[in-house]
């Protein structure tokens, strides 16, 4: 309310069993439906379709996408805004692998998988961004719409394709170091199937970009 920015918070819940919708409904009552827009869906339909669903309800010129479990801390949003204005960037991406960015709460296996995924992608695709698998980002709305039209990946590789396609289309990307803190409740969805899917997606991007 005192940030000086006109904003709305759009919450997309895909039938989560963890009470996300109930908490969002309480926030909506406290802050008003003009600030908290709860846009639930009956079941899990995928990250890409959640982006599209959220964009339909977004009225601003810029969209910040973040996880609702506070692994992505809202304190970084003003830095994203400053960075965007500083370079007039089309995208500002939060990076765990540059400056004073970091990851907290992951075991060694998860850190190695994430680092390895980024390293392999850097070598093969040279995207010009240091963190390709994170999802804490600011987009110009029209740029996000264009990227969603181009991207075909699902799961773990989706965020990576967003950056690779952005470079391919000539969009500018700024980076802000962030601290990622793993969720306290719930479990990571990353497993063997996701890793295989990532490798397949990476080879597809290598062959088509």
TrEMBL record:
InterPro entries: DPM1-like (IPR039528), Glyco_trans_2-like (IPR001173), Nucleotide-diphossugar_trans (IPR029044)
The UniProt record lists the keyword Lipid metabolism: no
Subcellular location: Endoplasmic reticulum
Pathway entry: Protein modification; protein glycosylation
Catalytic reactions of this protein: a di-trans,poly-cis-dolichyl phosphate + GDP-alpha-D-mannose = a di-trans,poly-cis-dolichyl beta-D-mannosyl phosphate + GDP
Signal peptide: none
Enzyme Commission numbers on file: 2.4.1.83
UniProtKB keywords: Endoplasmic reticulum, Glycosyltransferase, Magnesium, Manganese, Metal-binding, Transferase
An annotated GO cellular component: endoplasmic reticulum membrane
Biological process terms in GO annotation: dolichol-linked oligosaccharide biosynthetic process; GPI anchor biosynthetic process; protein O-linked glycosylation via mannose
Domain Glycosyltransferase 2-like as annotated: residue spans: 5-147
Enzyme class: transferase
CDD domains: DPM1_like (cd06442)
Cofactor(s) needed for function: Mg(2+); Ca(2+); Mn(2+)
Name of a matching Pfam family: Glycos_transf_2
Coiled coil: none
An example molecular function term from Gene Ontology annotations: metal ion binding
Family to which the UniProt record says this protein belongs: Belongs to the glycosyltransferase 2 family.
Free-text function comment from the UniProt entry: Transfers mannose from GDP-mannose to dolichol monophosphate to form dolichol phosphate mannose (Dol-P-Man) which is the mannosyl donor in pathways leading to N-glycosylation, glycosyl phosphatidylinositol membrane anchoring, and O-mannosylation of proteins; catalytic subunit of the dolichol-phosphate mannose (DPM) synthase complex.
Family annotation (PANTHER family): DOLICHOL-PHOSPHATE MANNOSYLTRANSFERASE SUBUNIT 1 (PTHR43398)
Subunit structure as annotated in this protein's UniProt entry: Component of the dolichol-phosphate mannose (DPM) synthase complex.
Protein name (Swiss-Prot/TrEMBL): Dolichol-phosphate mannosyltransferase subunit 1
Organism expressing this protein natively: Sula dactylatra
Organism classification: Eukaryota, Metazoa, Chordata, Craniata, Vertebrata
Originating gene: Dpm1
